[in-house]
Amino acid sequence: MEASTAAACKLCGNNGGNKVHEVREMMFGTRDKFSYLECGKCHSIQNFTIPDNLAAITQVTIIH
Ligand SMILES: [Zn+2]
After folding, report:
1. pLDDT (tens digit, 9 = 90+) per residue, 19-35?
2. What is the whole-number distance in angstroms between the Cα of residue 45 and the centre of ligand 1?
3. Which domain of life does this protein belong to (predicted)?
4. pLDDT at 7 over 90
5. Cα–ligand 1 centroid distance for 5 (angstroms)
């Protein structure tokens, strides 16, 4: 049985095999944590949590 994630893809609605990537803001050194959802079906990357600082959303570094 495959574990399902709480979040469904906003684009295609898929909620199976989705991955959550945690990223940290590095550009400004605030190190705020964000989570991004990678859809297991259409492989789109989308915001999973809404950060307080929306301005930092474009300045994140993806950590694998
Ligand atoms: Zn999708």
Report:
1. 988 888 888 888 888 78
2. 9
3. Bacteria
4. no
5. 13
Q: How far is the CA of 42 from the centre of ligand 1 (A)?
A: 4
pLDDT above 70 covers a percentage of the chain that reads: 66
Phi, psi of 37 (to 5 degrees): -100, 125
Q: Output the CA 48–ligand 1 centroid distance in Å.
A: 13
Domain limits, the chain: 1-50
Q: Is 10 helix (H, G, I), strand (E, B) or coil?
A: coil
Name the more confident of 41 and 58: 41
